[in-house]
Specification:
It comes from Sulfitobacter sediminis. This protein has 309 residues and is an all-alpha fold. Helices cover 76% and strands 0% of the residues. Helix 2 crosses helix 9, helix 6 packs antiparallel against helix 12 and helix 11 packs antiparallel against helix 12. The mean pLDDT is 84.
Length: 309
């Protein structure tokens, strides 16, 4: 029998920690890009995280599927491995050469909105209601403001528009991997996180070598940043995410989507001195409003249960 989610003060502390860590990742990526190329940045992040998670998984006995998977499920696992780490990390690292860390963070809030139409088509029982459709429409306007025209000229880079689309494409990768993950059979969450990182490493390291040549030897400070990116926002945060989902439930976990954009904008402005054009703030408000409306029923049940507990 599945235990009902239990939301405690530790749950709130874990979700706040995840939001701060993931929100700060875009800032740290911006700094790392001053000393390493984007493909090798993504490869280092996934590779270091995979090493850590393999060690943790080994202590758990390398458990994964509860029943032998079909070839189709194995193919889905490989696809998820690329779409949940290697590909979006690369999109983000490349895109952040031309956009601010705040922009990248706000674009990630669109992940939950992109999930809505995908889940409607591919996940049984996940239908788009009028409220969800309204939320999606509002959020879509926010994404359009985020990307559109000269509304968000922040860096003056020639490839800034391409960088914007790369960040949104990364959000699309995360959304697609989330939908595919729902279709997997019963699986050990720590084993899943580890296998996805290993698959991602196998995909991104050869790709980085082909696209950018042999791995460079970064300066010591950049190397430390790369290790931290692999350990904290990738390996540690994925482990913490599993704890939150298993103890407090996936709806509670979705609260992180509201906090990450705010942290990315605040940290980028305070530490890196990034500009805060009105279009960025409008886009963030629209995306978060759309997200809130689309998830209103689930969030209402969540807070009602938390209050009752």
């Amino acid at each position: 029998m599945t235990q009902a989610p239990q939301i405690t003060y530790k749950s709130w502390l874990m979700i706040a920690t995840l939001a701060f860590v993931w929100g700060g990742t875009f800032l740290v990526t911006e700094i790392a890009l001053t000393g390493i190329t984007p493909f090798w940045l993504a490869a280092a992040r996934v590779g270091f995280a995979a090493i850590v998670m393999v060690v943790i998984w080994a202590f758990r006995g390398f458990s994964l599927f509860e029943t032998p998977p079909s070839p189709g499920k194995i193919a889905a696992l490989i696809a998820i491995g690329g779409l949940s780490g290697a590909i979006p990390f690369t999109f983000l690292a490349w895109g952040q050469q031309y956009v601010t860390s705040g922009f990248a963070g706000v674009s990630m809030a669109s992940t939950a909105l992109i999930v809505l139409p995908l889940a409607h088509v591919f996940v049984p029982g996940e239908r788009i209601t009028l409220r969800r459709l309204s939320g999606f429409a509002i959020g879509f306007v926010g994404v359009a403001v985020l990307i559109g025209g000269q509304a968000f000229d922040t860096t003056g880079q020639a490839l800034e528009t391409a960088g914007r689309f790369a960040c949104i494409a990364a959000a699309g990768c995360y959304a697609t991997s989330s939908v595919l993950m729902r279709r997997l059979p019963a699986i050990d969450p720590i084993g899943l996180a580890t296998v996805l990182l290993v698959i991602g490493s196998c995909l991104i390291i050869p790709t980085a070598w082909v696209v950018e040549g042999p791995p460079p030897m970064p300066a010591p400070d950049i190397l430390i940043i790369l290790i931290l990116l692999g350990l904290i926002p990738t390996a540690m945060a994925n482990f913490l995410r599993v704890l939150v989902v298993r103890s407090a439930g996936p709806v509670f976990m979705s609260l992180v989507n509201y906090q990450v954009p705010v942290w990315s904008v605040v940290l980028g402005a305070v530490i890196l001195g990034e500009p805060l054009p009105p279009s960025l703030l409008y886009a963030m408000a629209l995306i978060l409003a759309g997200l809130g409306i689309s998830q209103y029923a689930a969030l209402r049940r969540l807070f009602r249960a938390a209050k009752g507990g």
